[in-house]
Design goal:
Length: about 350
């Protein structure tokens, strides 16, 4: 008895819809009622979302310390941890789309079409993201640094740096949220990037009659008495140059109304610059009042000597001129035309 060729039995691959139907049927067999397919898919989606939330938190706790040790910058550490969370959520989203029967190719095509449609709307956001990448790479400031926006004069501490914006906590107890594309185009002063010590300058104009040497010594002593001011020590290095750490007064200029003295001093912390400047000026005002040093102000002196020229003034001529100007004209016989009389009328008479 001859048999023909035996072909292996092939079971057709079930589609996602059929799988969902079987799962719903199996679950429904354990329950006294049937479960619709959309309810089963919804339950799977909720399970995937819950697992994604738990997994993201676990990964952040496990990898947080290692990431911080690797980058050693709070901004990069936070960005890396946010990337881990986003990666987990994106994987969960793709899983949920697969539950509903969407393939990766369909998803890619949909994303491409969606990006082409809303590309104009998302252009500023994408620009902020790109600026955020350059901002993290350039490192102009870090979380916790005190910065100042030059165009507005606002100062504050950097609270957070993301790929989209920078959050600044101002000294007025307010928040500034600045897009990265905008803040990269503005001048930003960082007071605590490498060294928190900051140098300040103060101009004092004293009169030429003052004792300049005494004034310089008193101004330097007045600055040293402030707690936040560095009173001495080794020179402070700025780039390739070194500057005196103690307060120093220089003769800046011989001005029109006095000698311009410039005080340069260093403060230990940049967080109370206005308070330190106010204390230094108060001490200088008190010290200069006790000695023969006067703060100059705009004024002028008129001085005449032998080379100033001469001007002859006659008192008699001056009074006579005044009398002639005040004297009222009267009609006399010698006057060819009486006052108030028209010459034409006189000719007719």
């Amino acid at each position: 008895m001859r048999f023909g060729p035996v072909w292996p039995l092939q079971t057709p691959t079930p589609t996602p819809t059929e799988v969902a139907t079987e799962v719903a049927t199996d679950i429904g067999g354990l329950l006294p009622f049937e479960i619709p397919i959309w309810v089963a898919n919804l339950g799977k989606s909720l399970v995937v979302i819950a697992l994604a939330i738990v997994l993201s938190r676990v990964l952040v706790r496990l990898l947080g310390r290692r990431v911080a040790q690797q980058f050693r910058r709070p901004s990069l550490t936070r960005t890396a941890l946010r990337g881990i969370r986003v990666g987990v959520y994106v994987f969960a989203l793709l899983t949920i789309l697969g539950i509903y029967g969407l393939q990766l190719g369909d998803i890619a095509l949909s994303v491409t079409v969606f990006t082409a449609v809303v590309g104009v709307v998302l252009a500023p956001i994408l620009g902020s993201f790109i600026s955020g990448v350059f901002l993290l790479a350039d490192q102009p400031y870090e979380i916790g640094d005190m910065i100042e926006l030059v165009d507005t004069g606002q100062r504050g501490f950097v609270e957070d740096i993301t790929l989209r914006h920078t959050k600044v906590f101002t000294l007025d107890n307010t928040f500034l949220v600045i897009p990265n594309g905008e803040i990269r185009q503005r001048d930003v002063v960082n007071y605590s990037a490498e060294d928190s010590r900051t140098r300040l300058s103060l101009d004092v104009l004293v009169t030429y009659e003052s004792d300049i040497a005494v004034a310089r010594g008193l101004i330097e002593e007045a600055a040293r008495e402030v707690d936040n001011v560095i009173s001495g020590g080794p020179n402070i290095r700025v780039g390739a140059a070194r500057y005196p750490a103690s307060p120093t007064v220089y003769i800046n200029n011989f001005a029109d109304h006095g000698v311009l003295l410039t005080l340069r001093y260093w403060v230990t912390e940049p967080y109370k610059l206005l308070a330190a400047r106010s204390k230094v000026q108060t001490n200088i005002w008190t010290r200069l009042e006790e000695v023969n040093v006067e703060i100059a102000y705009p004024h002028s002196h008129l001085y005449f000597d032998d080379t100033s020229g001469e001007m002859n003034v006659s008192l008699t001529d001056g009074l006579g001129g005044l009398d002639a100007a005040d004297r009222t004209p009267t009609a006399t016989g010698d006057s060819p035309v009486p006052p108030g009389q028209d010459p034409d009328e006189l000719g007719e008479e």
